[in-house]
Design a protein that fits this description.
Layout (H helix, E strand, L loop, with lengths): L1 H34 L2 H7 E8 L5 E2 L1 H11 L2 E4 L4 E5 L2 E14 L2 E16 L2 E11 L3
Parallel strand pairs: 1-7
Antiparallel strand pairs: 1-2, 3-5, 4-5, 5-6, 6-7
Helix pairs in contact: 1-2
Length: 136
C-alpha cells in the first residue's frame, strides 16, 4: 500500500512539473515572438512544425519564424489556459488575444488556440498550432 501511494504521489508530481514546464515554454514562445528572438524561436519550435493561422494560412518552421520576427506579435493568453500531458506530448487549449499590426494599423484579434508540444530530451518544442477567430 505504501508503495502504491508513493507511485501515485510521484506520478502526480511528475505531471505537475511537466505542466509547469509546458507553461514556461509557452511563455518563452510568446516572449520570443514579441521580441523577435530568432534563437529562442529556433529552440522552441520543432523542425516538423505545422503553424496554422486563423485565416487558414499554413506555415512551416522557417516561414513561421520569419513571420514572427518581422511582425513581433504580442500574444496575450486569457486566464484558464488548459495544459494536458500525455507522456511526452502536451496539448494546450484556451483563448488568447493576438495584438498585431495589419496594414499599418494596430489590431487585436480574439482567438481560440490549440497547440501541441512534444518533449525532446528536457526541452519542450511546439509541433503544431492552430487558431480560430472568435465570433465578434
Amino acid at each position: 500500500m505504501h508503495r502504491l501511494l508513493a507511485v501515485l504521489c510521484f506520478t502526480t508530481l511528475a505531471f505537475a512539473a511537466g505542466e509547469q514546464d509546458v507553461r514556461a515554454a509557452l511563455d518563452q514562445f510568446n516572449q520570443a515572438a514579441r521580441t523577435a528572438d530568432n534563437a529562442a524561436l529556433e529552440k522552441l519550435l520543432s523542425p516538423d512544425l505545422v503553424y496554422v493561422h486563423s485565416n487558414a494560412k499554413v506555415e512551416n518552421k522557417a516561414e513561421c519564424i520569419a513571420a514572427l520576427v518581422s511582425q513581433k506579435p504580442n500574444f496575450v493568453l486569457a486566464p484558464g489556459i488548459k495544459v494536458k500531458i500525455y507522456g511526452n506530448t502536451a496539448v494546450v487549449h484556451g483563448k488568447m488575444t493576438a495584438n498585431v499590426v495589419q496594414n499599418g494599423t494596430p489590431t487585436k484579434i480574439e482567438l481560440d488556440l490549440l497547440q501541441v508540444w512534444v518533449r525532446n530530451g528536457s526541452q519542450w518544442q511546439m509541433v503544431a498550432r492552430h487558431t480560430a477567430r472568435l465570433p465578434a
